[in-house]
Write a structure and sequence with these properties.
Elements: H1 3-17, H2 19-34, H3 46-50, H4 56-68, H5 96-111, E1 113-116, E2 119-122, H6 123-126, H7 149-154, H8 158-162
Antiparallel strand pairs: 1-2
Length: about 180
């Protein structure tokens, strides 16, 4: 008989002849080992598991939740061609006149000031700023030309620019 076989034989023989003692000992060991479960707190939020609570991103997200609510909502504007009530998929709104319209609408939003009582507010007071001290996130097709209307009109192949296939060509105003 090997060493392991003999060890199991003697443990089994001792357990069978001293049942009360073995049972009490293992119940006590189980209780002592389970005492840590008193302080057990399960975490179901993956962000809390992987992101430090003192990190800058977490602090800014908590500030945003506290100030604007738990859910980030994006306001969208949907455009349709004037006089088009059907769902004709051949209508292409990604044309320079419509892009210029988007530019003017976005510029108007950015310049608008609301006065309430003795305080004034603009878009930067309510917009989402993921990086402290930086500007608002405003996704727009005009961002392909960095909100520069002259660059958009000068772009000879603006649909390729929007696909980000070719790099942006510096205009005379960038030099």
């Amino acid at each position: 008989m090997g060493l392991v076989n003999r060890l199991f034989y003697y443990v089994g023989k001792y357990s069978a002849t001293h049942q009360g003692l073995v049972l009490t000992a293992f119940v006590c060991i189980t209780i002592v080992g389970s005492l840590g479960l008193i302080n057990l707190k399960l975490e179901y939020d993956p962000q809390a598991l992987w992101v430090s609570s003192s990190s800058r991103g977490n602090r800014e997200q908590n500030y945003f939740k506290e100030k604007y609510g738990a859910f980030f909502r994006i306001t969208q504007m949907v455009m349709k061609r004037k006089g088009s009530f059907d769902r004709d998929s051949s209508i292409d709104l990604f044309q320079k006149p419509y892009l210029e319209m988007i530019y003017h609408i976005q510029t108007a939003f950015e310049k608008e000031v609301l006065v309430h009582g003795d305080r004034s507010f603009n878009i930067t007071d309510i917009c989402y700023k993921p990086i402290t001290g930086k500007g608002c996130i405003a996704t727009s097709p005009m961002e392909f030309w960095l909100m520069n209307l002259t660059d958009m009109w000068a772009d000879t192949n603006f649909k390729e620019t929007a696909r980000c296939i070719r790099p942006r060509v510096n205009s005379a105003s960038d030099r």
